[in-house]
Amino acid sequence: MWQFLKTWYHRLASPKWFYHTSGRWLPYLAAVTILLLVSGAIWGLGFAPEDARQGNSYRIIYIHVPVSVLALVGYYLMAVAGAIALIWKIKLADMVMVSAAPLGAVLTFLALLTGSIWGKPTWGTYWEWDARITSMLVLLFLYLGVLALSRAFTSRDTAYKACAILSLVGTVNIPIIYKSVDWWYTLHQPATIKLTGGSTIHPAMFKPLLVMIIGFYCFYALVLILNTRAEILRREQRSAWVRELI
After folding, report:
1. Rg of the Cα atoms in the chain
2. What is d(CA 30, CA 27) in angstroms, rounded to the nearest whole number?
3. Residues paired with 51 in a beta bridge
4. 55, β-bridge pairs
5. Are 52 and 204 spatial neighbours (Cβ–Cβ below 8 Å)?
6. Cα–Cα separations (whole angstroms), residue 27 to 12, 17, 152
7. Would you say residue 189 has pLDDT above 80?
């Protein structure tokens, strides 16, 4: 058993093994992603009931909520990869960390953009400096900071170490974002989807939203794998196995 785990660990840490193995996953993951996102969008935008207070404007949650969730989860993934790279010096973890930064930045920007669009008919303004929005803006800057640090040093090892440290320090912002609606006065309503306790969203609205969230998780995995594969080729371009691909 121990030998099996050791072998699996070394394979998982190998950029070459990850590149070749992930290539076999991509077609299936892409198919599942498209199926979930298309069906969820049609279900939510076309067939979910109209909200009693917000009318049809609430339907932006089928984009806003999934991208917001993935922006937070993705930061934790980036930080964990950074911690693994710092502690165990695994090259693949470095590559995953820097590959997650641009994806997380785009998702955070979309969360802020869709939130602003939703805010205009709901609050009467596109932007309000409340705790949730401000802390999400800080998250965008953290992602951009990691992205900038990855390109700011001549030494790649120094750049990756700086990215890992910033990623870990920035994790303190994630619980602030999540709990901001409970800790401070904010225009944002409390969480409607809860892991513990009953959710306040109607099941007819929640089911397509759940499909969209799962679809965006698959989308995140798909794009992260593609980004990591590109980073592997860039970093391992002098390796014999990469030259064979070319």
Report:
1. 20
2. 5
3. 55
4. 51
5. no
6. 20, 18, 35
7. no
Distance set, CA 157 to CA 98, 151, 154, 171 (Å): 12, 11, 9, 22
The Cβ of residue 26 has, within 10 Å, a number of other Cβ atoms equal to 13
Query: Is there a contact between 132 and 68 (Cβ–Cβ < 8 Å)?
Result: no
How far apart are the C-alpha atoms of 194 and 181, rounded to whole Å?
Answer: 14
Q: Which two tokens stand for residue 69?
A: 């969730």
Residue 74 half-sphere exposure toward CB, CA atoms < 13 A: 33
Q: Is the pTM of this model over 0.70?
A: yes
**Angstrom distance (rounded) from CA 139 to CA 161:** 19
Least confident of 1-5, 99-103, 153-157, 229-233: 1-5
CA 60 – CA 131 distance, rounded (Å):
21
Token pair 């090259």: residue: 91
44 contacts: CB under 8 Å, gap ≥ 6: 59, 62, 205, 208, 209, 211, 212
